[in-house]
Each structure stands twice: as C-alpha cells, then as structure tokens.
Write a structure and sequence with these properties.
Blueprint lengths: L6 H16 L2 E6 L6 H9 L4 E4 L3 H13 L3 E6 L1 H5 L2 H11 L3 E6 L12 H13 L4 E4 L8 H11 L2 E6 L1 H4 L4
Parallel strand pairs: 1-2, 1-3, 3-4, 4-6, 5-6
Helix pairs in contact: 1-2, 3-5
C-alpha cells in the first residue's frame, strides 16, 4: 500500500470519510485490498476515526458488532471476496442478535474490473448477498457517496448489516 494515490482517488477517499463521519461512525476495521488502499490510509490518518487493521474479515465483523454493543458506530472495510468469507459470522452474530453493522466492499469482478481472476466475485457476490437477504447498495458514481448515512440508518432500523459496494471507477475518481 505504498503507492501514491492520484489526486482524484484522495478526493474520493476524503469524501467517503466525511460521509462516514457524518453518519456517526467512529470505528473502522479493515483488511487490505488494492482498490481501497487509499481509503484505508485516509481512515488511518483521520483523527475522527479509530482505525484497526485486522487479520481476517470475520474479525472485522466481530469487532464492529462488539463496538455496536458499546454504543460505537462501526464500519468493516474489505474486498468482495472477504465479504464472501463472512457468511457464518454475519448469520451467527448479526442476524441472531440483531446487530447492525456497515460493511464497505469493493465490487471486484463487476463492470470495470479487468482482472480475470476476479470473475468469480462478479458471478457470485450479488447472488450470495441475496441468498442470505443481506441488504446492499452499489455506489457507481461519486454523487451516490452521500447515501452512506442512509445505509447506516437502514442498518440500525433493520437491525442487520448493510453492505455498500464501491466500483473501481468511483474509487479511482473517474465516475
């Protein structure tokens, strides 16, 4: 994650961080992914957030769920394939105990991803979320970033996690 972000990427990351702060979230747990490297650095450097780097996606879900019980709004930040490893944690912790959580993912394998080895994410990510009734929205343009607060409000109302997926073009500042 040492690559210097473009000015557009940095601007988008700051806009996302501002929207997360406006939603009332102060804890961010993340795992590395090339598409969100700038976003992770932004959260880590921003004094409004406590950023925790975790070693497994399920740990991010557990940490964010525990934070909610302590009255802290939390965000789990990961790649698409990371979310697919979290089905048990989400269904056991969040669904059983009605714990809201905001989860940001990359839309790997979706339109705009030119990495052939992410095709499986594009084929199975949305059907997987549908199969466990996991609400999600996809941010396909920078104008949709303001909807982050709405997603967190929905998670709290619904008492379940809500996923916000970001396309490559949005994260690169070209949409």
């Amino acid at each position: 994650m040492s690559e210097k972000p473009s000015e557009k990427e940095g601007d988008v990351a700051r806009r996302i961080a501002d929207a997360v702060h406006e939603a009332g979230i102060s804890l961010v747990a993340s795992l590395p992914d090339g598409w969100i490297a700038t976003l992770i650095r932004t959260f880590d450097a921003d004094a409004r957030f406590r950023h925790v780097a975790v070693n497994r996606e399920e740990s991010a879900i557990g940490l964010c769920s525990g934070a909610y019980f302590g009255g802290v709004g939390a965000l789990a930040l990961m790649g698409a394939s990371g979310l697919m490893t979290c089905v048990y944690a989400i269904s056991k912790i969040n669904y059983t105990y009605q714990v809201p959580c905001l989860i940001f993912i990359t839309m790997r394998g979706d339109f705009g991803d030119t990495a052939k080895f992410h095709v499986s994410n594009g084929l199975y990510l949305r059907p997987l979320m549908g199969s466990i009734d996991l609400p999600y929205t996809v941010v396909e343009s920078a104008g949709q970033i303001a909807g982050i607060k709405r997603a967190w409000v929905h998670a709290k109302t619904y008492a379940r996690p809500v996923v916000v997926g970001f396309t490559r073009d949005v994260l690169r500042g070209s949409a």
